[in-house]
Amino acid sequence: FNYTEEELQVLMDESAKQYTKKSDKGKDVGTMTHAMVEAFLKGVEYVPEAPEGGDDKEFEANVKMAQKALKAFTTWWNSLKEKEVIALEKPIYSRSMKYCGTFDLMARINGKTYMLDIKTTNASKKAPLGIYAEYFLQLGGYAYAMKEETGQSSDDVGIIRLGKDG
Q1: Residue 31 · residue 20 · CB < 8 Å
Q2: Long-range CB contacts (within 8 A, 24+) of 134-141
Q3: C-alpha count within 13 angstroms, C-beta hemisphere, residue 157
């Protein structure tokens, strides 16, 4: 693919909007959990809004599950002695490999830099912990694009799995 600078900008803008589009459509547990974690890390309040015409009972159940997942995250995050958010929900693009995406979190923890992805995936027979090998390929791609785009590299990658049951 050969993109002009304008076409690349459109791709990046669309990538950055995907999180918002998903949030506006579904208001599901994973979307709410991501929004709650992002707000927590930014030091702002997040108040979920029920979608118009949706099932209020389902929405309230989803909020409770997302709050349990957030509690798990805040407990873990607050237990860390040294931590610093480097980037949050950042769209990136690899010009050499021609792909783009938005990663969840880059953080410095105890002196090391990590590219992190937040997942609320359910456990399954294939992934008893709710973590699939493909997630690490995605993170590797994000880390590669970040290094290519900004020159900033990570020491490692990791999945933060936040169960809906807390």
Answers
A1: no
A2: 135/159, 138/101, 139/103, 139/115, 141/94, 141/97, 141/99, 141/101
A3: 18
Rounded CA-CA distance 160/155 in Å is 16
Contact of 112 with 157, CB cutoff 8 Å: no
Residue type, 104: D
How far are the Cα atoms of 47, 126, 138 from residue 122, in angstroms, in the given order? 24, 11, 18
> Torsions phi, psi of 23, nearest 5?
-60, -45
pTM, to two decimals: 0.79
Tell me how long the chain is.
166
The model's pLDDT over 59-113, given as tens digits with 9 standing for 90+, comes to 999 999 999 999 999 999 999 999 999 999 999 999 999 999 999 999 999 999 9
